[in-house]
Design a protein that fits this description.
Length: 421
């Protein structure tokens, strides 16, 4: 469920007509619903009721400070994967003891920043990282709390580019080597082993891969405790998918996911962390864009939009589907027309959808991409010297621009010319 619905014939974000936002800020733009963000966070939090737990929002999905603060005020922790994300979380008021630092390539500077600023734990991905983390912690006179990310060699059955739990993926250490790596970690005075981390991928639409991975983690927990390690926390990652198309079967619900967690690891007495991102933010956001031209081609018609692949890259990068809807509700009985929906960038890959059925559409009409709240604005670029598009947050009958569109002069003037030019 989301809070983008037709009312009186026009698409609203909560109580605000999207056409009103378009008139105020121009197109294209991203818009997020506070009510949807909070509802989706609460679904995960409620699903783990009865367990000692923390829901750490994976902020790589959508990292505007207004979104982070909204979720933090509801009780969320944060999962970060860079120094920039760590500093964004802190700037949004998230305390260090609710921030988890993940990622395979943490630098000395990133580690130092988090140790000085405060951190809940580092999810360590490799033995070389463990050595660097130990050295930096000793240099600062601190002890770094760590989990070690294990790779359970489980097929997440998702897109190859977002699968992270198979043996050929770059993430974590092979679970078969976990006991030896934990034994080594216990000898390093700058580290304190507190738990296990696992994350097998993103946009999972089946609970079975989670069950396979979490069962392996449960068995490993017992083995590590027998080896003398004090395993008190299990970071189970995220990855639960969202229904990008309303015509497809819906993925499992957070309640079912929570029941799976309780069934597989609930008996261990560990604090449980999960790191949902897509399911919290994905359907909480739309991208709204305007049709520039309707072009008739050889055997097909094109809708050419003012949004492009640099604004929403998921279709070009992942062949991803987004439902696309008009801002004006079609009247009953309106016959569909088939279009290829494309942007203005000089790439054939700048195609959002092929042979997509929409009501007959004209230049100047506004349309919205559903499910664009996650991995939309955060993956945008200025390719073709196109400025980043605004982000807008709606709360009831109010809306605010939470990242404005830079002017062309601002974008261009970031360049500096060397003295010889």
């Amino acid at each position: 469920m989301d809070h983008f619905q037709y009312r009186n014939g026009t698409l609203h974000a909560e109580d605000v007509p999207l056409a009103e936002i378009a008139s105020a800020v121009g197109t294209p733009f991203y818009v997020y619903s506070t009510a949807t963000l909070l509802r989706h966070f609460a679904l995960f939090d409620d699903a783990l009721e009865g367990l000692d737990h923390l829901v750490c929002y994976a902020m790589k999905a959508a990292s505007n400070q207004a979104i982070l603060k909204t979720l933090a005020q509801a009780g969320a922790g944060m999962d970060v994967v860079s120094q920039g994300e760590y500093m964004r979380a802190k700037a949004a008021g998230v305390p260090g003891d609710k921030i988890v630092f993940s990622g395979v390539g943490k630098t000395v500077e990133e580690i130092r920043t988090a140790l000085i600023g405060g951190i809940r734990q580092f999810n360590v991905e490799s033995e070389p990282e463990m050595a660097v983390l130990n050295a930096v912690a000793l240099e600062l006179g601190k002890v770094a709390p760590i989990t070690i990310r294990v790779n359970p060699d489980v097929d997440a059955r998702t897109h190859a580019k977002i699968a992270t739990g198979k043996s050929e993926n770059k993430f974590g250490i092979p679970i078969k080597r976990a006991r030896a790596v934990y034994a080594h970690a216990a000898t390093l005075p700058g580290l304190k082993v507190i738990g296990i981390d696992v994350h097998i991928g993103s946009q999972l639409t089946d609970l079975e891969p989670f069950e396979q991975a979490y069962t392996k983690v449960a068995d490993l927990t017992v083995q590590l405790r027998e080896d003398g390690h004090d395993i008190i926390r299990l970071d189970l990652g995220g990855g639960l998918g969202i229904p990008y198309s309303r015509s497809n079967q819906a993925p499992p619900l957070p309640a079912d996911y929570g029941a799976l967690i309780k069934r597989t690891v609930g008996h261990l007495g560990c604090e449980v962390e999960i790191e949902p991102g897509r399911l919290i933010a994905g359907n909480a956001g739309l991208m709204v864009t305007k049709v520039i031209y309707v072009k008739s081609g050889e055997g097909r018609d094109f809708l050419i939009l003012d949004a492009a692949m640099n604004d929403l890259i998921r279709p070009a990068m992942y062949e991803a589907h987004h439902d696309i809807v008009p801002l004006v509700e079609p009247t009953p009985g309106t016959l569909p027309h088939t279009y290829d929906i494309v942007g203005p960038v000089c790439e054939t890959g700048d195609t959002f959808a092929k042979e997509r059925a929409l009501p007959e559409t004209s230049a100047g009409d506004l349309i919205a991409f559903r499910g664009a709240g996650a991995y939309g604005a955060v993956m945008a670029s200025e390719y073709n010297s196109r400025p980043l598009i605004p982000e807008v947050l709606v709360n009831g009958d109010q809306f605010a621009v939470i990242r404005r569109r830079p002017t062309l002069d601002e974008m261009i003037n970031r360049d500096t010319l060397p003295a010889w030019l």
